[in-house]
C-alpha cells in the first residue's frame, strides 16, 4: 500500500475516483500479507497487486463495479481446482479483500493519510469491512488527531484507542467491536492498517561493502544511514542517492541516535578501535538485528574484547557474526545479498535453508 500511495494521492487530488482493493485477512499459504493493495483508476490504470497475478483480473472488474455503484464489497478468493478457467489461488491459501470506491466525498481523510506517509509521520487507517456499520467507512488516526468517522462516536473512540496502540508497533489486522465500540461484541469488523515511519538501517564503515549493503537496504524499504569516522570515506558521492552519510565516530553517533525493535545495525569496520565501543552500545539497546563483518578469528577476538568490556553472555548472543548467511558470497554485492537474506530470515522466522529441502507452507504464519 505504501508503494502505491503516491499514485493514489495524485488521482485523489485530481478528483479521479478509483477502486481500492486491500487484503484484510489471509489463511494458510497466502501469497500476500494483510495490507497488500491494488487500485484501478482513470482509464483502467492499475497499480499494485493483491496476489501476485492469481486473481488480479477478477479484482480489476470488481474495482470498476464498486466505483460505478459507490458501494464497497468484501470478497474472498480461495484455492482454484483443476478447472483452468476458475478464479482462485494456486497456492492453496485464501485471501479476503475489501474493495471500496475512493473519492474526496466518500473518504475525506484519504488525502491527509497520503500526506502523512509522504512526510514520514505515523498514521493508522481504520476501515469497516463488515457488520451494521457502513462498509468502507474510514477513520484516519494520528498520535494527536483523528479524521473521518466510522459512524458512531463510541466506535470511533474504541477504534482510535486501539489504533494508537497498534501504531507504535506498526500493527496491521482485523479487530472486532459492537456497534458502539463495545469490546465484548464482534458484530462490526474493522481493518486497522498502520503506516509507521520506515525502519532504520545503520551501516558503520564506509567501505565498498557498505555501499552495496546500503543499496539493498534502501531497496528493502529501510531508511539507511552510513557512518564512518573518516571524512575521506564518508562522502555522499560514494553511496546511492537518498542514503544519509555521516562523518562521526560510530559509537558516538549511535549513542545520540534513537533505535527501536525494527532497527538494523550492520558493523562493517572490522577494526577493534571502532568495533568494540560501537558494539558495546549496539548490543545494549533496542534493535532487530546487530551484525558484524569479519573472519571467525576476528569474531573470536572481538567477542573476547567485548566480554572483557563487561558485556554479558545474553548481550553477546544477540551478535550476528560473522555477518550474513552462508551463500559462498565473494563480491560486495553478493555479501550484501547474504546480509539481507539473514535480516529477512530473522524478521520472519525463516531457516535460510533451500525451499526444496523443507516441507510445509512456503509462507508460514507470522512469528509473534
TrEMBL record:
Pfam families: XdhC_C, XdhC_CoxI. Residues 201-343 form the XdhC Rossmann domain. Residues 11-78, 117-178 form the XdhC- CoxI domain. Coiled coil: none annotated. It comes from the Bacteria. InterPro entries: MoCofactor_Util/Proc, XdhC_CoxI, XdhC_Rossmann_dom. Gene3D superfamilies: NAD(P)-binding Rossmann-like Domain. PANTHER family: ALDEHYDE OXIDOREDUCTASE MOLYBDENUM COFACTOR ASSEMBLY PROTEIN, MOLYBDENUM COFACTOR INSERTION CHAPERONE PAOD. This is Xanthine dehydrogenase accessory factor. The lineage of its organism: Bacteria, Bacillati, Actinomycetota, Actinomycetes, Kitasatosporales.
